[in-house]
Amino acid sequence: MATDWSGLTATIKASIVASTEHALDLSTVLDPLSVSEKFSPSFGSGDNAVDEIWHDRRTLAASANEDLDLAGVLKNARNQTVTFAKVKYMLVINTSDVVTTGHGVATDAQMEVGGAAATQFLGPFKDATDKIVLEVGDCFLVTCKKAGWTVTGGSVDSLRITNTDGADALQYDIVLIGTST
Predict the structure, then answer these.
(1) Tens digit of pLDDT for each residue in 105-152?
(2) What's the chain's Rg over C-alpha atoms?
(3) Are 173 and 56 in contact (CB under 8 A)?
(4) Which of 2, 4, 25, 54 lies at a C-alpha separation of 20 to 30 Å from 167?
């Protein structure tokens, strides 16, 4: 089903700003670095365009996992079913340090992204068993802005999220942006 949004705007940014210095006898050598990329896709379903977005803050119990069905199960901000045909931007952030146990202690839950048992969404992964590991506070931003990664309902649509911590809950934020056709 095609989206019924009348518009979607997004700006995706990735940047690193760093500086190193080395003191010499009469001067200090500076090496400033500023690298950034900014994406602002148009509204639509073609190359460099998007018309579907899904985002959520989710919690998984210790040692739990979930398979996010990218084609026909997730609900958007208007409580309508999201069916991605292509995913072009994916951001996952392990925010577990803000989850607290019954004793009020921040958790240190590690998470994995990818490796669903069946109908794996390959997206940026080379193989169906590939996973990205995120420690507390880590994030994973990946793009395929022009054509996007294919999602096919029932065969290529499951993105697995796993809490690898056997004792603590996991909290994470996820944003997926792509097209419905």
Answers:
(1) 568 899 999 999 999 999 999 999 999 999 998 999 999 999 999 999
(2) 19
(3) yes
(4) 54
The CATH classification number of 45-179 equals: 2.60.120.770
> DSSP assignment of 12-51, as one string?
EEEEEEEEEEEE-SS-EEEEEEEEEEEE-PEESSSTTEE-
Tell me which residue of 82, 56, 104 sits closest to 157, measured CA to CA.
82
**CB distance 65 to 160 below 8 Å:** yes
**Six-digit token string for 39:** 């994406």
Q: Which residues pair with 15 in a beta bridge?
A: 36
3-state secondary structure 96-164: HHHCECCCCCECCCCEEECCCCCCECCCCCCCCCCCEEECCCCEEEEECCCCCEECECCCECEEEEEEC
- Domain boundaries along the sequence of the chain: 45-179
Nearby residues of 71 by Cβ (< 8 Å), 6 or more positions away: 83, 84, 85, 151, 152, 153, 154, 157
Place of tokens 């944003």: 175
Q: Angle at the Cα of 43 (from 16 to 52), degrees rounded to 5? A: 80
Task: Kindly report, residue by residue over 4-40, the tens digit of the pLDDT.
Answer: 778 899 999 999 999 999 999 999 999 999 999 999 9
Q: Is the pTM of this model over 0.85?
A: yes
